[in-house]
Write the structure tokens for this entry.
Amino acid sequence: MTDWMHLLDTCRSIYAVGRNYAEHATELGNQVPDRPLWFMKSVAGLSHEGKVTFPSHLGPIHYEAEWLVRVGRNLALGSNAQYSDISHCGLALDFTARELQGTLKKLQHPWDRSKSFANSCWIAGLVDAAIAKDGFRYMLHVNGDLKQKGASELMVFPVLALMDDLLTFISLQTGDLVLTGTPKGVGPVSQGDVLRLSSPTLGLIRELTIG
């Protein structure tokens, strides 16, 4: 399980999309967008260790399980992505300081601080993308209880549509990561919680303990 970790060393940008599962948008009282709603997470927040902690002053931290793809070659602005442009797929946890995010939104301020902080982007693993070309499924359990179920057919915008949208305004570089949204069931984490990400598509199971 450790042979994929070096792939994170070439990551220059992490692009993440919001409201890409309709039921998740609804549970947070948001509308489903007509076009992907992008935000970015700092590469400095990447983590893959088995236990993480977060800055305590950020307030409640919520988990968001996500399918991710790794860009396998440089893609120019205005080009169209092919599945062969994806080198790896995997699972991630997009941690969010939820109350801070809500406060910043009400103030009409950028909400980067609620999405980019130490250990805010936890990677469970990366697997050759070919295995998931025809679709994918994944799950998140918290302390043994099933909390989230994601699948390619539930996404508002499919993976390649997301990449094509990115390419309308920026080029993509080898190693960039694209987080494709979270399904319904997000919630807070507490110290000692054990989160288990799994995907029958990838044959991947990984646990994370909140310190």
Notes: Residues 98-106 form the longest helix (9 residues). The chain has a mean pLDDT of 95. The CA atoms of residues 91 and 124 lie 5 Å apart.
